[in-house]
Amino acid sequence: MAFSIKKASTFADGLDHPECLAAHPDGSWFAGGELGQIYQISPDGKRVTEVGHTGGFTLGIAVSPGGKWLAVCDLRKQAVFRFEIASRTLTELTRGGDVPFDIPNHLAFTREGDLFVTDSGGFRQVTGRIYRFNSAGTGGVWHCGPFNFANGIAIGPDAKSVYVCCTWLPGVERVEIRADGTAGKRTVFARFPKALPDGLCFDARGNLYASCYAPARIYKVTPDRKVSVFVDDWEAHTLSNPTNIAFGGRNFDELYAANLGRWHLTRMAIKTKGLPLASHPAHRST
After folding, report:
1. In this structure, what CATH number is given to the domain that contains residue 52?
2. Residues 176, 184: contact at Cβ < 8 Å?
């Protein structure tokens, strides 16, 4: 059953066109801005504090296992940064290694601490790649693609595959993670005609959610690849160019979205638990 946009609400306001968001295990949130801001947001959404600044354009953010630091993609700097939460210290983690980034867009940690990063490649050029690094920034291209504008990325529920939004496909591709950690079989998992998918996340039941920059919509894809519209905002106000999405909230059963087209994060109490990320403790699905 689809979720009504009328049940969605503004969670936090006053951000500078946020493209990304990430839930910390302590209940707080982190998000970015188009001038390189790194925001920390209280669990109730009432306090938005700029805690860091890359000097560029913040894209994807991910919380490390243990929750001590953030990995932050920056469009203009063409780099991934490491942001220490306690000290608010920002250092460059990697520019891609032997093959420099074009557009480091989004990222996802494994529970072992490795980091997958998408590189979108050139605009309207099929040149996207996926990288993999350790916590020190050592690594490089994991899958050379080419992907049609690789965007949001998520590790699958079984931790044996990664899923990547390919905005101009438009759809989602799945890449197997072999036992030795290398990239395996690549398949198209879902297609969304006349849409521009951007962000991804899973619920605890294995359903995949894909947010679209346009139209203002989130799709749901079941484990058997059945595609449906989960929520749609034809006015594009509550959801406005939604980019990254993530589960959070006290019971981890609320879906949140960053809105690049406006200044707020959206909260949707969907009452379905999310799949815990590498920074979150596991929980039982309901």
Report:
1. 2.120.10.30
2. yes
